[in-house]
Amino acid sequence: MDIYTKTGDKGKTSLIGGRVDKDDMRVEAYGTIDELNSFVGQAASLIEAKELEDMKEELLTIQHELFDCGSDLAYAKKGHPFKVSDEMSEKLEKSIDRYMEESPAIERFILPGGTQLAATLHVCRTVTRRAERFVVTVSKEHEINKSVLSYLNRLSDYFFAAARAANARAKVSDVEYVRSAKVFKSNNTK
């Protein structure tokens, strides 16, 4: 199998059901999701400690789910079954709650960083937000699977919570943004 097809040499690419310019918003959206998937793989590759194995398994699942998101966005024709469901977001919520419970209470904005894993998870969070913005733009022009939008919204929260948990498990403190007022009210009393 040849890896190159030369069909995109003139700035077009294929969606399922048609061809579009390579800078089409759908391509921007699923291309950013592909970029995110690479960062998630990088984050997973940083995990060697046994106490982070649960997170590594979740990140692998997320990589598969991100492929599902891209697939759902790549359909230009109507009537195909979508892969992303609201249950995927609900599963993320359970992980978010678990990670927030094991992290120290938060009152101020924090700076991305801490351990290398936490810093990479924060990169995942910000790329997720960019992908989400592109999907919102696509949704204004095309019918999309709305569950993809919910999933991305929840996923950025997941990466925030996972980054904080990664720092907490490594006994590394998050760094608060020093000019931040107290903006979060938390039931977490840890």
Automatic annotation (TrEMBL):
<comment type="similarity">
    <text>Belongs to the Cob(I)alamin adenosyltransferase family.</text>
</comment>
<keyword id="KW-0169">Cobalamin biosynthesis</keyword>
<dbReference type="InterPro" id="IPR016030">
    <property type="entry name" value="CblAdoTrfase-like"/>
</dbReference>
<protein>
    <recommendedName>
        <fullName>Corrinoid adenosyltransferase</fullName>
        <ecNumber>2.5.1.17</ecNumber>
    </recommendedName>
</protein>
<dbReference type="InterPro" id="IPR036451">
    <property type="entry name" value="CblAdoTrfase-like_sf"/>
</dbReference>
<dbReference type="Pfam" id="PF01923">
    <property type="entry name" value="Cob_adeno_trans"/>
</dbReference>
<comment type="pathway">
    <text>Cofactor biosynthesis; adenosylcobalamin biosynthesis; adenosylcobalamin from cob(II)yrinate a,c-diamide: step 2/7.</text>
</comment>
<dbReference type="GO" id="GO:0009236">
    <property type="term" value="P:cobalamin biosynthetic process"/>
</dbReference>
<dbReference type="GO" id="GO:0005524">
    <property type="term" value="F:ATP binding"/>
</dbReference>
<comment type="subunit">
    <text>Homotrimer.</text>
</comment>
<keyword id="KW-0067">ATP-binding</keyword>
<keyword id="KW-0808">Transferase</keyword>
<dbReference type="GO" id="GO:0008817">
    <property type="term" value="F:corrinoid adenosyltransferase activity"/>
</dbReference>
<keyword id="KW-0547">Nucleotide-binding</keyword>
<dbReference type="InterPro" id="IPR029499">
    <property type="entry name" value="PduO-typ"/>
</dbReference>
<feature type="domain" description="Cobalamin adenosyltransferase-like">
    <location>
        <begin position="3"/>
        <end position="165"/>
    </location>
</feature>
